[in-house]
Amino acid sequence: MELISTPLLPEGFKVPASRSEDPSRRLRRLLATKPYVFGPGVYDPFGAELVMYHGFDAVYFSGYSFAIGHLGTTDMDIYSSVEIADGARRTVSALRKFQLTMAMGDPEKGAAPVHLEIPPVVVDMDAGYGNLFNVQRTIDLYVKAGVAAAHLEDQVMPKRCGHIAGKALISADEFVGKLKMMRNAADDLGHRDFVIIARTDGVSATEAPESKRGIQLAIDRGLRYLDSGVPDLLWCEFPTAERGPTEQFCGEIRKRFPGARFAFNYSSSFKWFNENDPITWDQLAQLGVGFIFITLALQHAAGHGISVLLDDLKHKQEQGYMALQRKEWAEDADIPTRSHHLFTGVPYHQHVGQVYGATRLSEDLDEHLELSKVV
Question: How many domains does the chain have?
Answer without folding.
Answer: 1
